[in-house]
Amino acid sequence: MSTPVLSTTLNDFGHRPAGALQVLDVGGYTFEAGGALPQVEIAYETWGRLNAAGDNAVLVAHALTGDSHVAATEADPSTGWWEELVGPGRPLDTDRWFVIAPAMVGGCYGSTGPASPDPDGRPWGSRFPFVTIRDTVCLEERLLRALGVTRLHAVIGGSMGGARSLEWAATFPDWVDGVGVFACGAASTAEQIAFGQAQVQAIENDPDFAGGDYYDGAAPLQGLALARRIAHITYRSEYELGVRFGREAQPGEEPLGWAQRRRGRYQVESYLDHQAKKLISRFDPNAYLVVAEALISHDVGRGRGGVAQALAGVSAKPLLVAVDSDRLYLPSQSEELARLIPGENTVHMISSPIGHDGFLTSAQQLGTEIREVLRL
Ligand SMILES: CC(=O)SCCNC(=O)CCNC(=O)[C@H](O)C(C)(C)COP(=O)(O)OP(=O)(O)OC[C@H]1O[C@@H](n2cnc3c(N)ncnc32)[C@H](O)[C@@H]1OP(=O)(O)O
Ligand SMILES: N[C@@H](CCO)C(=O)O
């Protein structure tokens, strides 16, 4: 029987090849929920060229544990998470569009986050401010203006990337021509908050959490691993897990009976262990808390008279996409967006047995709609 061993040594989270990222200092910032940073750096990658008018930009917003590496670049030729969407002749045609993908503030992929040094050189840790989705787009707007972007032809993203896109369209209606919101709704629902809270608790209750100031010692990676297991179950459908793993035992293991007080695993348990292990090799637990709380906070109607009023102010052409088997971000939430954003809107359905992660695994299904609806 194999026992899943998760190291508590903090990994080189967020590691990217040297030179893969461009980074811009966008200045000091006071966050929506309080707290401030004297300096915020936003890391990003780009594809294509910004035209002289600065109006051919398309922003791609990554999801919860994603990064700016949407597609291969010269500096980092490794395959990106939406590789099939970006490049010459692809839906985000880099012969025409200047595609930019910022890494979210508070994460661990190059932008200022909890592991970044304060002015005295100590990691921010527990002192890192609470970040909302609105904060992220305000900081990204500073980045784009500094780069000479005058209009966003479109902003697109799935899951938390969809929340970021929608917030862009609501916060800067005069600046955004098209908005792609995939597998996401207007605000995090009670159930999404509940799943998120369980993930937050998993990390904070790890004995190594140390209130968030663990950078000198062992990191709360067992907690992060549990958070990923909880999250990953919600990203896949009951059908997919059943068909793929059923009640099969992991080869070489016996789920009935103990060996050293631990039973062998079913295949699905081994699969979740693997997903957990992969995440803890690349992500900082504090950064996970920041992005998970940001997603929990997602509410496009906050301070705008509610969701209906906020969405009535969206002037960007919407591309609304849901995954038919998504049990986390239900297609009914996309239908609500279609009803409340002005215009005759329809929800485009990705057909996938996988569930929420379908917006990543079936990206090619998005391509046609991206071209047609957002006129890319
Ligand atoms: C390195 C970075 O910076 S990544 C940052 C950017 N990433 C993102 O933005 C998105 C995050 N990615 C994801 O969420 C996921 O990787 C997804 C959704 C894209 C993966 O979806 P899928 O392609 O469907 O992967 P799937 O769920 O089938 O998992 C496959 C893995 O499970 C493993 N697996 C399958 N069955 C088992 C089992 N019984 N026991 C153990 N492992 C198993 C496979 O070997 C495979 O391992 P690998 O990924 O190390 O090659
Ligand atoms: N599995 C993806 C999507 C979550 O919405 C991620 O980890 O970012």
TrEMBL record:
What top-tier enzyme class does this entry carry? transferase
Look up keyword NAD and say if it applies: no
Q: Where in the cell is it found?
A: Cytoplasm
Active-site residues, Swiss-Prot/TrEMBL: S159 (nucleophile), D326, H356
Question: What EC number(s) would the UniProt record show?
Answer: 2.3.1.31
**Where are the annotated coiled coils located?**
none
Q: Name one GO molecular function term.
A: homoserine O-acetyltransferase activity
Q: Which residues form the signal peptide?
A: none
- Give start and end of each AB hydrolase-1 domain: 56-350
Give the record's subunit note. Answer: Homodimer.
Its protein name is Homoserine O-acetyltransferase
Species in which this protein is naturally found: Nesterenkonia aerolata
The beginning of the lineage is: Bacteria, Bacillati, Actinomycetota, Actinomycetes, Micrococcales
Q: Which gene encodes it?
A: metXA
